[in-house]
Amino acid sequence: MARRPTLELSDLEEAIGHRFADQDLLIRALTHISALPGTPAAGPHYQRMEFLGDRVLGLVIADLLYRSFPKENEGDLSRRLADLVRKESCAEVAEMWGVSPYIRLGTGEKQSGLRKKGALLGDVCEAILAAVYLDAGLEAARVLIERSFGPRMKVSVRSRRDAKSALQEWAMGRGLTIPVYREVRRTGPDHAPVFVIAAEIPGFASAEGEGTSKKTAEHAAAAEFLQREGIEETA
Fold first, then answer.
1. This prediction's pTM
2. % of the chain beyond a pLDDT of 70
């Protein structure tokens, strides 16, 4: 097996929320093909696991959406599914886990800044999901996916994109004070913080959102406010 990463994988396991019985699976999920000698098409790198993780993610998310939104039609469910399983969403989850420092790359790729690029982070996220599935089965993967992707599942694609503007327009249209956003807490290591932000309008209960940056957490909080008040589609 390839040389193990120097960072403590137990810290990453804690962030992910899964202790591996076979830690080599996690190492493989973190290994880019450039870190291996030669060009092993099916060697101990993450590409095959990425393929499997993408399918596991799609199945679990589809099942969660089907159960969580019994009144939505096929088209609405398909749009939610496409948004949740796209590379950008997977990259956000990988950032939340703090995966970047653990990724094994070749020398040239390290120098190119590949470690922090969204496409790579998305691939590694899918590979880690496959590693959990191979290590402990579908139920363990389902628990991880629901915990990591669940908050995003509750918010529509449109709401997640336009939530702050929609909430401000809604408030102004009713003569209310414009929303303010307050940081509730920050958790996680410095290289991969997780923010919880509250959206507040006087006269209403605040709504909280979580994200790997203040901006994404603010949008999530605004979207939660809109959804809770039943005004998501008015923007």
1. 0.66
2. 85
